Amino acid sequence: MVIKLLEPTVEVVENLLRVANTKLPADIGWAMEAAAGWERNPTAQSQLGAIMENVRKAEHLGKPMCQDTGIPIFYVRGKFDSSIADDIAEAVRNSTKNIPMRPNTVDPIIRTNFGNNLGNGMPCIHFIPTKDDFTEISVMLKGAGSENMTRLKMLNPADGMKGVMDFIFESVIDAGGRPCPPGIVGVGIGGTADECTAMAKRALMEPLDYEEPDEEIRQMEEDLFVRINSSGLGPMGLGGDTTVLGVKIRKAACHTASLPVAVNIGCWATRRACAKIMGDKVEYSQGAVL
Amino acid sequence: MKYIEAPLSEKDVRALKLGEIVAVTGPVCTGRDEVHIRALEYVDEGKEVPGCLNGAVLYHCGPIMKQIENGKWMVVAAGPTTSARMNKLEPRFIKEFGIRAIIGKGGMSKEVCNAMKEVGCVYLAATGGAAVTYAEGLSVASNVDWLDLGMPEALWQFNTNKLGPLVVAIDAEGNSLYEQVRANLKLD
Q: Were A70 and a residue from A112, A124, A143, B42 both cysteine, which residue would form a disulfide, CB within 3.0 to 4.6 Å?
């Protein structure tokens, strides 16, 4: 955690984008090192080694660790003014040029590139108003390799937790090497179809060393972690003991006739950064429990 | 690590063994979704397609590029993209242009493996996300075509220097490391 004096919001968001792009969150780095320690497969070892070497180079050179700088997903929590959306958009435009980030946004039908990571509906911002006396801005850079593997299933309540666990496991196995494993599996259980998918992604903001207080959820996370890593899929789907670095589950109340489950996988480069603005100080970190 | 030099001959690629780790030196061009669509459309319409695709080492990659003072384009970051998106068009693409090697991530379909076997082409798995390391092997673009497709989708050309590490994940006989892993998965 780093505490700095408050700058204009545009600059705070530019700082977030730079940090997220160039510095892997510490919790993911530690998990990767631990994985390299237990991994037995030589191809998997080579993949983990290449990832860790790349992470060191990106941080040292101040370059984006992955060329897919993704779609930046923002979460604004606490007290805020609607003008913050304009500040975030300006920061995205500036950072696309200055970091630089790859211009990723295109028109979905005619596929022309906007050139600035903006366009209709962008940047993607989720607002979470609370009675707190701070403004917290978080960003996650979501690449398409992992995002394209997203799944939602409206299960029947009779499918029970076995149905939920099997669906999550199968989603990760079917995704194979495409979402750049070993990453994080974000899961939403319950809510409505839209809230469920939003929860699955929001879960990826959570640091891997955050201890889940809900006993049942923690047990499910641990069981899935063991089951997925025992599968043998491995880094990049090339085989090995390391397919995920963590599983993060969120839940919400749902209709008595529904059991929605969503899976949103984060690649190994689950890039996040957060700024908590309090008075004239900003506290920077690389994860948040939302 | 084994060093291989592009352009690759059929004999060169047929000599590569599954699981071997290699690095490529020589001409490599990028091509993902839009390059596949346009190149095949152009062939159908009898229009000219950039010559760099013939017998190419094709990199499934949408790099971050930065234009420098002399007008040249320098690579900032350039890791592999998910190859499976190109599954549908790749068999024809391989046959049409005699592609000798594909660099990508995540592997490709059985149909693609069959085309690779027929033509003599290998799939080299790059480590997804290792964009700074691969950028070192690419450096400055030697040329770019179809920049109107946007930075990630353009046909970028490079004279690579030890672009790697890359794992031979599908060999020129169509054997796939991904399939071997899948066949041995523990699914209970």
A: A143
